[in-house]
């Protein structure tokens, strides 16, 4: 187990290095010219050359990549800026934004709580409703409620998030005015209190959860129907156990196992930012940061967002694998 | 122990009724393709301490009948007709809640393929104690002691260690033993064994059968053993029911079936047993054709399309008339065949017996 974890963590480092290299060189393969962006309106050849020298854009790409990675790999971080105006950039140093000079790590730290609230809140919603609807549908297979659940699920899967989100926003915020217009200040639970916080997040949660809830409904239903046809369910009934014990202890336990895997990966992916939902409801999370940095040709920010999101995906993978070994005794980690 | 558990949970026993009696059991499944007539009129009786064998090919209705005794078709789309009397209580009309009290306690089942019949995520020991805890108000420790005791009785080495193992950590033979232990947890008066040795090699098979007979003597339980292995039938049973296409085609005591069989299908079954004492030039015999579809059963005798003895029938049509299951002697030997009784005896002694 310990050895397994160490091996998986080492693999993680390699994966992240590969991702960083791909992101870095892909950026420079585009016709982007960050120097023009940095020097601003009154650019001339002189100022561009000066910017290039300050930021090291004249150096070979491999050297630039090495410099950048030094901030992440050496525990002391690195120094940024030209001679005379050097600044310490402590670990983990993703550099400073080309757009506004703010250290990227600070932007990520600021944006992450909003994304964390958004993703976990939506995850609770979709897990609860998805599994519940799927379970009811499976147990009442062929009945009206089953057909209704399958219908809702089909609707949820096929309704584009961007349309659904704006519809919710229009209906509840603009038309009915049940919920105040989103104010990013209300994203912080501990400063505004739970009521404003809930009002801020409820629509984004529903928007984000819809597609996932629909998928989980279908998945739970299919797994549960399969499981209830297993021989060991017949054995459980033959023992004289109550139907509730048969369904929840013997059936659901098996049916939910694959869902744990998918849930871990879905949540891990969303912790890196929910681009569309954050955009619709003006949530200043990682998804918004990602869009802004891409549109602004802001390499340090792009690197930061990509690597930060990648860490969640990779770690979620490990967590799921370890968890699986606890759930299914037939799986042994080695 | 056996008696106290059995009598506490069962209703007062009607006088004169056998311990287990099936009367004209019917199990039909409505499907999109039509009505699957899996069992059509199965009747037999069984007393405590005795063993009955149900033989037949796959799809002849053996397992479906046994599930009907457990009431496991309740809640599914299956239509169950006829009567099942167990110790004075009628099971077909019984509610699920009532029959649930009998399951695992009065009637227990040993399923085939214990790898899929045991829950992969729970420890073997916990799966054993589960039924015991439901039917008896005892502490977990008592149930655990009982489970370890039974695991020991069925011959699992180091049972107190093995209690905490998962099914996949057991070998095939051990899983089957654990399955038997699981069925015996509440001292069931009726034990239904569905192909208990099919997946096992011959040595283990013999051990398991010996074990079942020992335990039967000890607990005085009635056993219904479902199999297509006539060797198992010969070793274990007193009475035999031969099923074909969801119908009983011949039934009687084990001597009738093996020494005086009268139905051509039974002849075919006996003829297809591999024999070691036969010369090496003999090919393994089989019954030509395939079992009938249970949706479109032949109008006449279900075995007619595969029967080689139809020219001996006089005055009946095998194609259009279903032969009745008729008594052939003063014992319980019944046969469903249009061929005349004396003619069948002659055919068996002249044509079949010499080649067995």
Number of strands of chain B: 12
Oligomer kind: heterodimer
Low-pLDDT windows of residues of chain A: none
Estimate the strand proportion of chain A: under 5%
Task: Sketch the major β-sheet of chain B.
Answer: 8 strands, mixed
Major beta-sheet overview of chain A: 2 strands, antiparallel
* CATH topology call of the largest domain in chain A: MetI-like fold
The gyration radius over C-alpha positions of chain B equals 21 Å
State the secondary-structure class of chain B: alpha/beta
Distance between the termini of chain A: 7 Å
Count every beta strand of chain A, where a strand is a DSSP E run of 2 or more residues. Answer: 2
Order of helices and strands of chain A: HHHHEEHHHHHHHHHH
Helix content of chain B: 25-40%
Strand order in the largest sheet of chain A: 1-2
Q: How would you spell out the order of helices and strands of chain B?
A: HEEEHEEHEHHHHHEHEHEEHHEEH
């Amino acid at each position: 187990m310990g050895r397994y974890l160490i091996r998986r963590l080492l693999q993680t480092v390699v994966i992240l290095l590969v991702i960083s290299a791909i992101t870095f060189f892909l950026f420079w393969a585009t016709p982007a010219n960050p120097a023009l962006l940095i020097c601003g309106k009154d650019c001339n050849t002189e100022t561009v050359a000066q910017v290039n020298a300050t930021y090291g854009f004249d150096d070979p790409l491999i050297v630039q990549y090495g410099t950048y990675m030094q901030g992440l790999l050496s525990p002391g971080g690195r120094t940024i800026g030209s001679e005379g105006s050097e600044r310490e950039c402590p670990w983990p140093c993703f550099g400073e934004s080309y757009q506004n000079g703010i250290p990227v790590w600070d932007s990520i730290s600021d944006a992450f709580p909003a994304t964390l609230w958004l993703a976990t809140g939506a995850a609770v919603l979709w897990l609860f409703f998805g599994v519940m609807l799927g379970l009811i549908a499976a147990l009442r297979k062929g009945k009206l409620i089953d057909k209704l659940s399958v219908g809702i699920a089909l609707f949820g899967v096929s309704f584009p998030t961007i349309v659904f989100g704006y519809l919710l926003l229009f209906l509840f915020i603009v038309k009915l005015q049940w919920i105040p217009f989103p104010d990013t200040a209300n994203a912080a639970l501990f400063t505004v209190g739970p009521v404003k916080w809930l009002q801020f997040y409820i629509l984004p949660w529903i928007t984000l959860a819809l597609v996932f809830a629909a998928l989980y409904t279908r998945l739970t239903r299919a797994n549960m129907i399969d499981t209830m046809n297993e021989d060991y369910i017949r054995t459980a009934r033959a023992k004289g156990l109550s139907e509730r014990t048969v369904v929840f202890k013997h059936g659901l336990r098996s049916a939910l196992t694959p869902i744990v895997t998918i849930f871990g990966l879905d949540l891990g992916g969303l912790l890196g930012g929910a681009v569309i939902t954050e955009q619709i409801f003006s949530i200043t999370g990682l998804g918004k940061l990602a869009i802004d940095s891409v549109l602004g040709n802001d390499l340090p920010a792009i690197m930061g967002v990509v690597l930060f999101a990648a860490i969640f995906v990779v770690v979620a993978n490990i967590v799921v694998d370890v968890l699986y070994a606890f759930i299914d005794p037939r799986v042994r980690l080695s | 122990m056996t008696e106290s558990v059995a009598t506490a949970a069962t209703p007062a026993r009607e006088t004169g009724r056998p311990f287990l009696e099936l009367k004209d059991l019917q199990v039909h499944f409505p499907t999109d393709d039509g009505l699957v007539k899996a069992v059509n009129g199965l009747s037999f009786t069984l007393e405590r301490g005795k063993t009955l064998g149900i033989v037949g090919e796959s799809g002849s209705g053996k397992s479906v009948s046994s599930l009907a005794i457990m009431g496991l078709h309740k809640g599914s789309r299956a239509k169950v007709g006829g009567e099942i009397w167990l110790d004075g209580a009628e099971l077909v009309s019984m509610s699920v809640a009532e029959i649930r009290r009998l399951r695992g306690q009065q009637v227990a089942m040993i399923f085939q393929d214990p790898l899929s019949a045991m829950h992969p995520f729970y420890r073997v020991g916990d799966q054993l104690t589960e039924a015991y805890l439901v039917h008896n108000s005892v502490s977990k420790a008592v149930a655990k002691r009982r489970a370890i005791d039974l695991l020991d009785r069925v011959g699992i080495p180091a049972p107190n260690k093995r209690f905490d193992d998962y099914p996949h950590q057991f070998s095939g033979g051990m899983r089957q033993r654990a399955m038997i232990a699981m069925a015996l947890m509440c001292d069931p008066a009726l034990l239904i064994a569905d192909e208990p040795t099919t997946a096992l090699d011959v040595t283990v098979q013999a051990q398991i059968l010996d074990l079942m007979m020992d335990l039967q003597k000890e607990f005085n339980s009635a056993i219904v053993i479902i199999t297509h292995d006539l060797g198992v039938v010969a070793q274990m049973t007193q009475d035999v029911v031969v099923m074909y296409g969801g119908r009983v085609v011949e039934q009687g005591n084990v001597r009738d079936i093996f020494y005086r069989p009268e139905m051509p299908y039974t002849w075919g079954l006996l003829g297809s047993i591999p024999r070691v004492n036969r010369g090496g030039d003999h090919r393994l015999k089989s019954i030509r054709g395939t079992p009938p579809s249970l949706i479109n059963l032949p109008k006449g005798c279900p075995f007619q399309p595969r029967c080689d003895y139809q020219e001996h029938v006089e005055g009946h049509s095998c194609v259009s008339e279903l032969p009745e299951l008729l008594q052939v002697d003063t014992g319980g030997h019944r046969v469903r065949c249009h061929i005349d009784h004396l003619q069948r005896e002659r055919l068996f002694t002249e044509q079949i017996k010499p080649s067995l």
